[in-house]
Design brief:
Layout: E1 3-8, H1 16-24, E2 29-36, E3 43-51, H2 55-62, E4 66-67, E5 70-71, E6 73-76
Antiparallel strand pairs: 1-3, 1-6, 2-3, 4-5
Amino acid sequence: MSKKIYVGNLPFSSTEDDIRSLFAQYGTVSSVSLITDRDTGAPRGFGFVEMDEGGDEAIKALNNYELDGRSLRVNEAKPREDRRPSRSRW
């Protein structure tokens, strides 16, 4: 069963390939998605990794792992909540 993993406090210089190779040490990585700002395209400093196997081991090993001077926050991703459209007051 695949596991979706949240990865936070990423260095802004991180690429999907960097993160994929880091997590691949612990199992099979099926996808990596780094989140960027909608308007500027600049990295937001977090992303998600989906692993077919080895997810629990990766979480244990990489939580608080230091990458380029930043301590990663790694845990199981929470299910995405549906967001209601906000009512505009204007």
